[in-house]
Amino acid sequence: MRQLLSAALLALAITPAVADDDIVLRGMGSFHVGGRTVEVFGEPIRELVLSPGGVPLRFDANGPHQVEAMYVQYFLPQSRRGKYPLLLWHGGGMTGVTYESTPDGRDGWLTMFIRKGFDVYVSDAVERGRSGFSLAMSKEAPMILPKRNPFERFRIGTHWDADAEKMEALPGNQFPVEAYDNFVKQFVPRWTTTDNAIIAAYTAVEKLGASIVLCHSQGCGFGFRVAQARPELVKALVAVEPAVAGDVDQAGKLKDVPALILYGDFIGGDARWPHMRRLGLDYAAAMRAAGGSADVVDLPGIGIRGNSHFPMMDRNNGEIADLIENWLRDKGLVN
Amino acid sequence: MRQLLSAALLALAITPAVADDDIVLRGMGSFHVGGRTVEVFGEPIRELVLSPGGVPLRFDANGPHQVEAMYVQYFLPQSRRGKYPLLLWHGGGMTGVTYESTPDGRDGWLTMFIRKGFDVYVSDAVERGRSGFSLAMSKEAPMILPKRNPFERFRIGTHWDADAEKMEALPGNQFPVEAYDNFVKQFVPRWTTTDNAIIAAYTAVEKLGASIVLCHSQGCGFGFRVAQARPELVKALVAVEPAVAGDVDQAGKLKDVPALILYGDFIGGDARWPHMRRLGLDYAAAMRAAGGSADVVDLPGIGIRGNSHFPMMDRNNGEIADLIENWLRDKGLVN
Predict the structure, then answer these.
(1) In this complex, do A24 and B22 lie within 8 Å of one another by their Cβ atoms?
(2) pLDDT of res. B10
(3) CATH superfamily, region A3-49+56-330
(4) Sign of CA dihedral A7, A11, A14, A19
(5) Which residues in A113-210 belong to E strands, given as ranges?
(6) pLDDT confidence of A271, banded at 50, 70, 90?
(7) CB-CB under 8 Å, B64 with A148
(8) Which of residues 119-158 of A touch B (CB under 8 A)?
(9) Model pLDDT, residue B125
(10) Cβ–Cβ of B29/A187 closer than 8 Å?
(11) B192 shares contact with chain A (CB less than 8 Å)
(12) Which residues of B touch A9 (CB under 8 A)?
């Protein structure tokens, strides 16, 4: 007995005390994937001063360039419950930061799904964030949003104003409007001609094997198209507020790829979102007609009200994450 | 005794089994800091098609824009031993990815210093990576490196070649040359007119209180300048291969900021690095003349050979991380 006690106490002593809400990882890291090499020529030699007052540098940009690779950061929880890696794909003009801490500093879905036991991989799409962009792209004017744009375009409110007192949020909105200025810092420039490169890089994530893809907004256009092209790589597709869907004529390719399509609140009163939602509904119907499984959840329809276009940042983001986890469990994708 | 045993066994049962090399975090997340709002006007209205075949969008970029904020990602180990947060600042044309997994997939300094018990904060400087860039910057041609450039400029080798067989690495180089193609994927476009904005955002990290700053290459120019401006915020400065130093006339402002300046191998035979190293030596001498503490370590001088400009990625990156940790311990900054 004494020996057993000693062994137990020794085990306790060498095991660091882990609190219930600690995050225990068996690994973390990052990599770039995909891309190609292109030859750049005809660029003028530039005399650059890299820092004010510095010595001029003769810079020749000609020669082979690496372009169109994609940055991926991953976190592997010690208690793994998700059967497949969970890939988080962001929307237009944003980066993987979408899924990190919310603009008001709460846990985002990245941390939540790590805690739920999923190996989580967060990407920055080609051209965005830590994926960088190429010399060819830099000559084309990217789309860079003024502060007003996301507020009124993504169902946060009806009127943005430099004077916070004059802003008009949609009534009952779950978006943390008081942190809107932090939110707009997450946006990065966006080009409009890079779809094929983005899809190629997302497809290159096949090195991870089959995965669950959770996409947002523009990212769902890529999610549906990658699933159409390589359905064996996608064990499930969770489309959060898709701005576009796939090609309905190819929806049958997803007959073995269960899909959950989620929409927030305030869509009926919006100028653009009823049409965008219609694309998702039509695609889901085409999937079902082909024998596939597509669940469309309008959050207000199940009593969850006030969600903006960004449920991963909304005040009830934990509730939506639980809903997604439960759907994945129903599909047999959680141990 | 039986009661004590039960308690011990119960504690074991509810404590998840944590392996020695697991990473236990009490928190993780990210935020953007700093920046300002500027008014953009005179931009033409553009009809943009966001995805091929999509419905044109009338896009007006005019109005207030958020610019020059900085992205910071943080990891807080459960067993904290560093007395202050450790800030990792990258070099020119790169992002915080510098400190993540090495190009050949080993642990980088981010993970190593988390394991050593430091609260670690990794930034992407203003204009780079997840910090985004502004409409004003997008009109100026950024510096985008061809694949050859970092190989020959940063003491990896003497000749880069598209044919790997013809590449000539410096003999005994610790850089994982076989993963060079992964390495160049980490580079992002760089502007040459953003120093003041970068310094402003780095200084805004004061919201964290006093910190230890570990900088690399161009990032050390910012490290020394922020320490000169706000010495009370910087408890120690670790300058890894600084490409520039501060203003020697202001080195006295660092008399209470101990500095470690580290250089790798192959400097003597390089065209540019002896001059750049001289800037660091002169600054260290000026710090000491003013009563400060500045330690310059030439790695080959202490028998550590083969380091490139990127010791955080070199094969012996763990050995260099240990050296830095020991120096911080000597300075009383590790519990």
Answers:
(1) yes
(2) 52
(3) Alpha/Beta hydrolase fold, catalytic domain (3.40.50.1820)
(4) negative
(5) 120-124, 157-159, 168-169
(6) confident
(7) yes
(8) 124, 129-130, 132-135, 138, 141-148
(9) 97
(10) no
(11) yes
(12) 8
A 226-285 near B (Cβ less than 8 A): 244
Nearest to A148 among B63, B124, B184 (CB): B63
Kindly report, residue by residue over A293-322, the tens digit of the pLDDT.
999 999 999 999 999 999 999 999 999 999
CA distance B227 to B246: 9
Q: Are the CB atoms for B130 and B95 separated by under 8 Å?
A: yes
What stretches of A18-85 adopt beta strand conformation (E)?
A: 23-33, 36-40, 46-48, 57-59, 63-67, 70-77
Asked if A6 has any chain B CB less than 8 Å from its own CB, the reply is: no
Say if strands A70-77 and B168-169 run parallel, antiparallel, or are unpaired: unpaired
Amino acid, single-letter form, for residue A73: Q
CB-based contact A23 B19, cutoff 8 Å = no
CB B175 within 8 A of CB B314: yes
Q: Is the pLDDT of residue A193 over 90?
A: no
Question: What does the pLDDT average to over A130-137?
Answer: 90
Of A160, A163, A80, A94, which Cα lies nearest the Cα of A123?
A: A94
Contacts with B15 from chain A: Cβ below 8 Å:
12, 15, 17-18
Question: What is the complex's ipTM, to 2 decimals?
Answer: 0.94
Q: Which of B81, B192, B194 to mutate to test the interface with A (most CBs of A within 10 A)?
A: B192
- Number of residue pairs across A and B with CB atoms under 8 Å? 237
Pick from A320-329, B57-66, B135-144: least confident: B135-144
Does residue B1 register a pLDDT over 80?
no
Contact with chain B for residue A161, Cβ under 8 A? no
Contact A16 B78 (CB under 8 A): yes
B window 17-46, beta carbon within 8 A of A: 17-19, 21-32, 35, 37, 40, 46
Within 8 A of A148 by CB-CB distance, chain B residues are 63-64
Residue B55's Cβ-count burial label (10 Å; 0-12, 13-18, 19+) is exposed
Spell out the long-range contacts of A191-194 with Cβ–Cβ below 8 A and sequence spacing 24 or more: A191/A127, A191/A133, A191/A137, A191/A140, A191/A142, A191/A143, A192/A143, A192/B48, A192/B49, A192/B50, A192/B51, A193/A137, A193/A140, A194/A68, A194/A126, A194/A127, A194/A137
Judge: B26–A19 Cβ closer than 8 Å, yes or no: yes
Whether residue B184 is predicted with pLDDT greater than 80 in this model: the reply is yes
- Checking if the pLDDT of A157 tops 80, the result is yes
Residue B230 exposed, middle or buried by CB count within 10 Å (0-12, 13-18, 19+): middle
Task: Locate all alpha helices (DSSP H) within chain A, ordered by sequence.
Answer: 2-14, 109-115, 135-138, 148-153, 180-184, 195-203, 218-229, 273-289, 317-330
Segment B311-329, tens digit of pLDDT: 999 999 999 999 999 999 9
Query: Amino acid identity, residue A94?
Result: M
CB contacts, 8 Å: B148 with chain A: 63-64
For residue B17, name the pLDDT band (cuts at 50, 70, 90). confident
Domain regions of chain A by residue span? 3-49+56-330
* Residue of chain B whose alpha carbon sits nearest to that of A5: B5
Task: Tell me which residue has tokens 């200084």.
Answer: B203
**Residue in chain A nearest B130 by alpha carbon:** A129
Tokens standing for B34?
């700093």
pLDDT in tens, B19-30: 889 999 999 999
